[in-house]
């Protein structure tokens, strides 16, 4: 009798083991039980940056947090240098990198763009009363101007391709400090961004002025190639519900007070400044 019981126990154990393997295979292979998106951003105020307590904040972070609330998620937001975040998004699926410019090159690489987050008017800022007078990037090159921008950004690539001597810095605060210290002649940014950066480093808003307008372009919530289509659809649907609810107009009002800059939210462009010094001329 003891032998029979032992054999029955062994058979049961074997069946349970097989069942466990089968369940594991289903969990790994089933698209319905997929990992969540990894949320990655970089310091790019006022769109995304760290507050005084080291927590992610900003206009784009407000969008992400609202979507997370809708989906019942608690996924943390990682704040790392842009160049590193972009490298991760290029090499791994299921990465949501924000915010990023929508370029033909990135579309060809398979990135998907969920939504416009912030509209920027990009241009060159110089120190106040610099006397710089240019009408084009070619003019900046011919005058031998030196520039600074964030490492890995399309702005740095733009200036370098235009033949302008360009320094690549890790973040916007470093760019501003280099300009104000006279280490470079111009800083490629937007007035919306510059306003927040200058405040963060305790510099006067009047210490810089726009000297050239390049273009207006929105930045997006960008998802990496190879991302689970179900995850992508879930986030896209949640954003569509959010933007149609009017909640983002309230976010614009809240951040207008917080930044001291009049902001609006547009369904096609995202957040933008009403009175951006660069915007009013371009």
TrEMBL record:
Residues 36-258 form the Solute-binding protein family 3/N-terminal domain. Gene3D superfamilies: Periplasmic binding protein-like II. Pfam families: SBP_bac_3. Coiled coil: none annotated. This is ABC-type amino acid transport/signal transduction system, periplasmic component/domain protein. It comes from Roseibium alexandrii (strain DSM 17067 / NCIMB 14079 / DFL-11).
């Amino acid at each position: 009798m003891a032998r029979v019981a032992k054999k029955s126990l062994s058979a049961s154990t074997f069946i349970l083991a097989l069942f466990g393997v089968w369940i594991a295979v289903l969990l790994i292979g089933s698209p319905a039980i997929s990992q969540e998106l990894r949320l990655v951003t970089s310091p790019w105020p006022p769109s995304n940056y760290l507050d005084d307590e080291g927590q992610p904040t900003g206009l784009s972070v407000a969008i992400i947090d609202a979507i997370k609330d809708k989906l019942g998620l608690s996924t943390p937001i990682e704040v790392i240098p842009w160049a590193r975040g972009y490298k991760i998004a290029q090499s791994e699926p299921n990465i949501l990198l924000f915010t990023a410019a929508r370029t033909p090159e990135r579309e060809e690489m398979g990135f998907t763009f969920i939504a416009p987050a912030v509209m920027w008017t990009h241009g060159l800022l110089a120190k106040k009363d610099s006397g710089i007078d240019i009408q084009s990037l070619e003019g900046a090159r011919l005058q031998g101007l030196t520039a600074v921008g964030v490492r890995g950004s399309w702005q740095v690539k733009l200036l370098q391709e235009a033949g302008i001597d360009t320094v690549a810095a890790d973040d916007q605060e470093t760019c501003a400090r280099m300009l104000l210290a006279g280490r470079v002649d111009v800083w490629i940014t937007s007035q919306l961004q510059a306003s927040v950066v200058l405040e963060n480093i305790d510099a006067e808003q009047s210490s810089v002025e726009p000297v050239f307008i390049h273009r207006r372009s929105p930045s997006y919530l960008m998802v990496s190639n190879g991302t689970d289509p179900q995850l992508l659809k879930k986030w896209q649907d949640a954003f569509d519900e959010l933007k149609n609810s009017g909640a983002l107009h309230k976010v614009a009002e809240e951040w207008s007070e917080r930044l001291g800059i009049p902001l609006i939210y547009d369904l096609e462009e995202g957040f933008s400044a009403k009175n951006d010094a660069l915007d009013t001329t371009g």
